[in-house]
Specification:
This protein has 7 helices and 11 strands. By secondary structure, the protein is of the alpha+beta class. A 5-stranded antiparallel sheet has the order 1-2-9-10-11, with helices on one face. The longest helix has 70 residues. Bound molecules: calcium ion (2 copies).
Length: 346
């Protein structure tokens, strides 16, 4: 090999070394940058979460204060007109964040677990509640949603047996890729898991989902905070629309303080004593289950925290969060009290 050829090879090696070194440098810078961005994103996410948790604590304290107030006044009534717990916080700057929040009463909503009653350790379907759910879906979903089919499938979803009890319904054999839980549901979104539920026949307005909830079976419906659609489903299907109007008229004047007084209204005269007792057992004037929704924005990035609380109203009981969900901001913040509930109680 001549001297000039050796120089040429050395030059190529040097050039290759430089190329490799600069590639490595570039990779290091790229990785570092990505690591920093990721760390920053996590920190920002955590920051928004901490802000939301702080707002949740404030709302929770508001609910506890309301309970103390109710106890002191000896009036265990929860309504959205005269009381302060139904908070609606418009976008408010706090430090470097923008916070908005609202509090809802979950006991003003249709509880899907009403569709079953417990007897001898078994969950038995409740035909009246199936009629009520059918009516609510009829009033709030598009016509092609097939309300009675959905309501019967919900009952099969919940009841202990694996038999399709009605003409319409679905149990394990009908589902290809899932199994029915055969027990109470923990979230109203389980309605979406039903066999006949179709995305294109769900309500156009996302707020309709705020008419449904999943609470323990015996939980009553608070007549002071329920939107008209839920009152119509629960009371209207038994006592007619006149009775629903009477409830709305009554609570417009003042919060309803006793279901027994409500049952004395002439609009309920069409019911016999048993029907009245059955209906009264579903209704209440106060609430133990609430929802707090918080939106947090920092540097143009958004998070939503949806917390659900149980405020046990008995003496010496505590208030606790039983569900916390960080959800994407696909829908507007739910209004305070409940969707479709107007400030004057109508
Ligand atoms: Ca079943
Ligand atoms: Ca069944």
């Amino acid at each position: 090999m001549t001297a000039s050829k050796q120089h040429g090879v050395a030059l190529i090696i040097v050039l290759m070394l430089f190329a490799i070194l600069s590639t490595i440098t570039l990779e290091i810078v790229f990785r570092q940058d990505r690591f920093l961005t990721r760390a920053d994103n996590l920190l920002q996410w955590d920051k928004r979460y901490q802000y939301a948790m702080a707002a949740e604590v404030v709302a929770q304290q508001g609910l506890i204060d309301d309970l103390d107030d109710d106890r002191n006044n000896n009036a265990m009534v929860d309504d959205c007109v005269e009381e302060q717990w139904a908070v609606q916080l418009p976008p408010t700057p706090y430090d470097d964040a923008m916070l908005s929040a609202s509090v809802q009463d979950l006991q003003g909503r249709f509880n899907l677990n009403w569709l079953i009653t417990t007897s001898g350790g078994q969950f038995i379907r409740n035909p009246e509640a199936i009629t009520q759910l059918t009516r609510l879906i009829e009033q709030t979903f598009p016509p092609e949603a097939n309300p009675s089919r959905l309501a019967n499938e919900m009952a099969d979803w919940l009841d202990s047996n694996n038999i399709v009890d009605s003409v319409e319904g679905a149990e394990d054999p009908e589902y290809r890729n899932r199994r029915t839980p055969n027990m109470p549901v923990s979230h109203e979104s389980e309605l979406r898991a039903l066999l006949s539920f179709r995305v294109n026949s769900q309500p156009a307005e996302s707020l309709v989902w705020g008419l449904f909830t999943a609470l323990p079976q015996g939980t009553t419906l608070n007549v002071n905070t329920a939107p008209p659609q839920v009152l119509d489903a629960v009371i209207g299907s038994v006592a007619g629309t006149g009775a629903v109007k009477a409830v709305i008229e009554e609570r417009k004047k003042a919060p309803i303080t006793a279901i027994s007084n409500l049952m004395q209204e002439p609009a309920f005269n069409g019911l016999n004593a048993n029907q009245k007792n059955d209906l009264a057992s579903l209704l209440g004037v106060s609430s133990e289950y609430f929802q707090v929704m918080v939106n947090v924005e920092v540097d143009g990035q958004l998070s939503r925290l949806v917390s659900r609380l149980h405020r046990a109203n008995g003496q010496g009981k505590t208030t606790s969060v039983f569900s916390r969900q960080v959800s994407p901001l696909l829908t507007p913040l739910e209004p305070a009290c409940n969707p479709f509930y107007n400030a004057d109680g109508t």
